[in-house]
Amino acid sequence: MRASGYVGRLAPSPTGALHLGNVRTFMVAWLRARQAGGKVILRMEDLDHPKHKPGAEVQAIEDLCWLGFDWDEEYVQSQRKHLYDDALARLRAQGLAYPCICSRSDIEAVQSAPHEGEQLRYPGTCRDRFASWDEACAAMAGVRVSRDRCNPSPVPCWRFRTPPDSHVSFDDVFAGHYEMDVWKTLGDFPLARDEKGAGYAIAVTVDDAAMGVTEVVRGDDLLPATPPQILLYRALGLQAPTFFHVPLVVGPDGRRLAKRHGDTRISAFRSAGVGAERIIGCLAQSLGIVPDKKPIGLGSLTGLFDPARMPRGPLVFNGFT
To answer: Which residues in 5-48 belong to E strands, given as ranges?
Structure first.
């Protein structure tokens, strides 16, 4: 019998192989749940179809099991699309979702100030422009695909009609107090590029609520995505979980892990003869759980993880030395 109602989740995406950064975050999620006597859910987030790598789901599960992870329930998002369709219908009934055909270059062109990275404010250009998804699709028929270079078959996206009074604040378990005026910062943010609402923003909100997730552990690159998600919870009448955002794993140049830093896939380490306990030991030391990088099993760490000892900055990975 479980000692608490804590429910955590591991949410790999089959857009690529499981890598060292994923595993470090999953370790925090798994240890938080097991130390609380709670439940771990595995949810395969397979809705990003253009980036979906065949076989990646099977490889991710094999890698997680090899590293010592276990879970109590398992779900696949592509089998739950009817739930996202229902949520979108509820948002539309409230006048809170509408189709948009603007490209990234369109949005960049109307920015009132220089922007950094991916954070662009959408001012509501397509609000009340189209009566239906089909009408928006018809309007896109003549759009030149080369404008964005990333979508060979352009389709509209659903956007959330952000209310002017959209200031959101919350206390992240690790990152601390965070707040955002969503309207001033993001404007009407995207929900999904799927007629039935099967997209990241809607899916994770609906699923975390339906599965009873009490705490979401994920990379701190998603910290800015949390205030708009909290608005979605409110709009759908759902209870938001607490959040624990973990610093990323980066290369020696300070940038998040990528191919330029070498192969950090778990499958590549396995092929090279790097043992599971060596990987776990290295990551456990980086999280402040153990004092050195000696090989250790994941199950041996239960009860030892303390967020107060976890470094505040990213892990700079330069190999298993």
So the answer is: 7-10, 39-44
Q: Is residue 89 part of a domain?
A: no
Q: What is the pLDDT of residues 9-63, one digit of tens each?
A: 999 999 888 999 999 999 999 999 999 999 999 999 999 767 777 888 999 999 9
Query: Cα angle vertex 85, ends 106, 213, to 5°?
Result: 100
* pLDDT 10s digits, 157-184: 999 999 999 999 999 999 999 999 999 9
Q: State the Cα–Cα distance between residues 34 and 24, nearest whole angstrom.
A: 15
* Residue 136: domain span: 96-195
Q: State residue 289's pLDDT score.
A: 98
124 plus 190 within the same structural domain: yes
Q: Angle CA(84)–CA(89)–CA(94) in degrees, nearest 5?
A: 130
Domain shared by 180 and 109, yes or no: yes
- What is d(CA 284, CA 287) in angstroms, rounded to the nearest whole number? 5
- Do 166 and 105 share a structural domain? yes
207 in a structural domain: no
Question: In total, how many domains does the chain have?
Answer: 2
For 181-190, letters b (16+ CB in 10 Å) and e give: ebbebbbbbb
Using alpha carbons, list the distances in angstroms from residue 219 to 102, 236, 315: 28, 25, 12
Which tens digits make up the pLDDT trace of 128-162?
Answer: 999 999 999 999 887 644 444 444 457 899 999 99
Q: Is the distance from CB of 30 to CB of 69 less than 8 angstroms?
A: yes
Looking at this protein, which amino acid is placed at residue 154? P
User: Do the domain assignments include residue 172?
Assistant: yes
